Amino acid sequence: MWRHGRGRTYINPATKAEIGAIAMMLKAKRIHWNIGKLFVNVVVYRPDMRADPVNFLDAILDGVKVATGVDDRYYSGSWDWQLDKEKPRIEITVWQEEEDERIHSHAHP
After folding, report:
1. Which residues pair with 45 in a beta bridge?
2. pLDDT for 6-31, tens place per residue?
3. Which pTM does this prediction carry?
């Protein structure tokens, strides 16, 4: 994900492209995201046990942040991995709960 050279640390161009692709997919799905809790579930379907799936999370969450405008300090969710030699992929589910007006309508004496 990160490259080091000439005394600097920078993001790998391939990773930057992946972050952009994630952001574009999410932007196409929803027009407006609220600042507040954002749920992000990630499942990495990997072809073998060589790569560490947790290393993908930073890039994925950076893409979510770009797409939604919601800072990752508001994220909640989970991540998991499975082996799938035939169809390796990453599945990302992102959602926000709509405000429930009933919560705000209860009066407490």
Report:
1. 82, 89
2. 766 556 677 777 777 777 777 776 66
3. 0.67
